[in-house]
Structure formats: C-alpha cells, structure tokens
Amino acid sequence: MAKNRKSTSALIDEYETSGKLTTEEAQALRDSPHWVIPFSDIASYLGGSVIFVGLVWIVVALMQDMSQATIDAALFVATGLTAFLSFTLIKKGGKLATLGESIAAVSTMTFAFAIGLLLDIFNVHDDYILLIASAAALVIGIGLSTRTSFIGTIIIVAATQPFMAAVISEFIPDTPVAPLLFAISGSALIWFSLRNIGLRFIARAAGAVSILMASIAFSTWDSNMWQPLVGFAIVGLLFIFGANRMHLEIVAAGGLGVTIITGILAGQLFDSALAQGISVIGVGALIVFTSIAISRKGNAVT
Known about the structure:
2 domains
C-alpha cells in the first residue's frame, strides 16, 4: 500500500512554503484546469466520427442494391483502406496521430462487421458470429493498446463484454456460474490497466463495474446463503484492491457492491426490517472506521 500520498494542492502548498515555487507560480498551478483537450484533438475525434458515419451511409446504400457477398467484399476493402490510412497517420505522430487512432476504431469496427457478415453468409450460428467477431476486435485492440494513446484501450473495453456474452450464451446459458464470467472479464480489464497502456482509468472503471454487476447478479441468482457470501467476498476484495492501489473508481464500485450485497444478506438472515437495517448500518460503520484507520496512516484514495 502506498504511504503518505499527497494531493496536488498539498504538494503545491508544500513547494510554495519551501520556496521551490513562487507565490505566483503556485497560484497559477492552483488555477490551471485539470483537463485540457486541444481543439485540434476535438476536431480529429469529430473527423473520425464523420468518416464512420460516411462509411455506414455507404454500407446502407450498398445493401439496397448489392448481394451480401458484394457488401462483404466492400467492407473488407474499406477495412484495408482505413487501416492503411490509420497506420500512416499514426506513424506521422503529433495531431495526425489522434485522427489516425479515431480512424483505427472505424477500421476495427468495419472489420468486425465484415467478419460477422462473412460468417452469416456461411450460415454460422449467431452466437459464434458474435464470439468470433468480438474476438477479432479484441485481438486488434490488444495489439494497438501499447502503440496508441487511447484507441487500443477503448476497443478492448468495447469488445470484452460482447465476447463474454457470446461465450455465456453458447456454452453456459441460464446457469449460476454465468455472471462470474463477467467478474473474470472485469478482473482481466483491471489487470490489463496495470500495463503501460493509454486511458487506464477507462479500463479500470469498466472492469470494476463489470465485477460489481456480476457479483450482484450472482448473489441474487438463487435464494440461498452461500451465493451472496461469495458475492460479498468478491466485492470486498475489489474494495480492498482499490484502496491498496488508491483508485477511486474501484473503491466506489467495491463499496457500492458491499452495501448492496449486505442488504441482500440481511434480507436472507433476518425477517425483521429493523434487524436488517441495523446489520447494514453495522457494516457501513465498519467500512467508515476502516477508512479512518487507513487515513491516519497517511494514505489517500485518488
């Protein structure tokens, strides 16, 4: 667990007091915005979105007059062209790289559609189509994650849950174990966020939410005691991990999960609404006292 982690404002005050920063410099840092998105980046995102809309428009137009095979061939051609354009722009670097990453998203999505349509032409089962198409996008996202500043992570997050949904639908539908696969995929996203990738916050948040929803679904699947206990253990570990790593989004998801599943357990254990309320308050008080104990040791969650 990291110790004595200080906020930005506390560090500014410390440096100002020690003379490392002048009063004017310290105030300028305090007044500076936390998030700044250059107009050129916004224009690049918008340009990539417009290109995507144009491609969709073309595909819709083609679908009216062409066979599925011709449409699929056009999608593969569009994939190749956009992939080449994306690679060229990313290689140039700077502002063009941002536009290139946006086009990479278009290329990946077009490729996934092309794969899905090709499999549909060969009458492959719908679940396998979703499984293979999302797996293809996932592989591309993993390949791009360490080479791009944001789009690789976004593709991974967007492709992970459809992939897991296809696995569940095809292999283990309507079983209590099914929600736990989303906990596994969420854990994988959080693990992946520990690597040197862009937008790690997005991967962490998506992973935490996936684990939260999976734990709640598993806890309420059947009317028994052991499933809520397992769900409670999962979100409890999520909360502890977030506190150790000092990631607010994981702490928030874990804390919310602990609160909700505590309510589920209380409903299972006690018939009295008063007893249920007291037990929930007790768990909440335990979390508060634990948080105070951590803060007294000089830790902070950010």
